[in-house]
## 1
Amino acid sequence: MESNEVRRPRIRVGAVILQRGRLLLVRHEKAGRAYWMPPGGGVDWGEPLDAALQRELREETGLEIEVGPLMLLKDSIHPEGERHIVHLIFRAGVIGGTLQKSRDPRVAEAAWVPIESLRSAEFFPDVLPQLLAVLSDSGYTGVPYMGNTWRP
């Protein structure tokens, strides 16, 4: 990296979609490591968070979703400063489409995973304890997502 290069965090959106006691997850395989994570991905410049999440879910799972409130917010900062990812995980619901495997070679599968089997799963980002707490708390509704509020 050149000394005048500006480094910024990467913003990643993810979805918590629960149906009949199962959570929608994608399994990634990268650099000899396999792990589960909420489906989602990076936000492009000028793209609203909800639109990015809808696009990423179509790409990774083939599903059309409705984006709900923000459920979790997490930083993932590499100890040596190599990467900084800000994860915004929203509640979402399926409104169409058919579950299918992503064309992204890093995504090995998209699956409905029973909640009771999550404790033994390799998970990234490390949000599993908080995710399980949120899912078990029927009174937790998250933080409303206000959308793009810029007005000229």
Note: The first strand starts at residue 10 and ends at 16.
## 2
Amino acid sequence: MKGGLPLKKYRGNEVEAVYCNSCGKEMEVEHGIIKEGVFEADISWGYFSEKDGERHNFDMCEECYNLMIEKFKIPVERRSLKEFL
């Protein structure tokens, strides 16, 4: 939560607002559609981790995602998509 607000807000089943967990920026949403790049993470931690039994999820704006992957020792794998779903 950001200042007591959920990081994703819904109106019914439609996304109303999304916030970057890293910088707090509100992403552009129009008619339930996120209108900019967003990295959505959802991980269920399993055995042998210090977070065993926890589920974490977060959203990042494209700028914060780029800053995060710049720190990787092994670069992300990039592939071009022929079709967008």
Note: The longest strand covers residues 38-44.
## 3
Amino acid sequence: MRTVRAVAAAVVLVLVGGVLALVASPPAVAGDAGYYGSPPAGSCFDLTLRQTRAPSTREAPVDCSRHHTLLVTAVALLPEELDWSSPRSEIIKAVMTICPPAQGQVIGRNRLQLYRSQYLWYFFTPTNAQKSVGARWFDCMTGVAEDTKLTNLPLNLTPLSNHMPDDIARCVTGDLHSTTCADTHVWRSSWAFYARGRPTKSAVKRAANRTCPAHVTSRGFLYSWMDVPGRRYIVGCYSKTPR
């Protein structure tokens, strides 16, 4: 991945739910139109998985001590050289300079552990009405996804680890959809590792066959992969389960 230009917003570390989170600093001038309509960092939302596919939401934050599915980990402004008519690829690159690090500050930065979890990050941009008065913010939200829904989050998010509880650990259904291990599943993530080179179909298969058998608890196993920056990729190994 090419180096992405930093967004034009300062970031600071604050406590969110008892853990550190990376959030954008408040606007330098009170009432800055760039932040018009933005949610507070550290706030919570109760949205469905379908609602996360929309570019914006009109829903209001909810009390984090009650049912909620998303935590706002950061709010930032678009870089000065971008606006909402800029290519979406450039907007996504700007968002990625903020959202993944913000999530990492809350749940941990271990990419292999993240791959073995169902934590995902989402972002929303202002509504068209908010954009029309100068809103330039985007937010970053973290949630846990099953195959058909977002799960209810605890007040304090469970950090990544090698032994994650079922409500955040990644499992796979019989029709090969990722879900939490608290949901009905056939395969459970047992291991993840980095493999060198390009993730061609044959290279991934060789890497999985070489490494996965020593890290699964079943005779057969499932594997998946994800490309990452640099000349390497992640391979996940899954054990067959009785559930």
Note: Residues 201-211 form the longest helix (11 residues).
## 4
Amino acid sequence: MNKTANLYARIEPDVKEQAENVLETLGISVSSAINMFYKQIILQQGIPFDVKIPKAPENSAKWSKERLDAELEKGYNDMLKGRTRPAAMVLSDVKKKYKELSKCKKA
């Protein structure tokens, strides 16, 4: 059996909960995920993903009529194929993302 070391980290409760929910869905323990992350740091010789400020979302108000029609068509096709989510769930996700972005701007 491999030796192990303990790791203690301070994490925002909502970030911890969201990440653990994703890991649970994937069937991966937190310890395994941290181990994978550390191994990738070693392999990549740095953080294994870009650390940068994300681009601002595109302003759909500036879309051409053709682009708007194409996006609406995609949405309609998704609806026909059953690829939908309840509006309350989408709104909840948007609020969470807004809250996360607000925290980033304050830091």
Note: The chain has a mean pLDDT of 88.
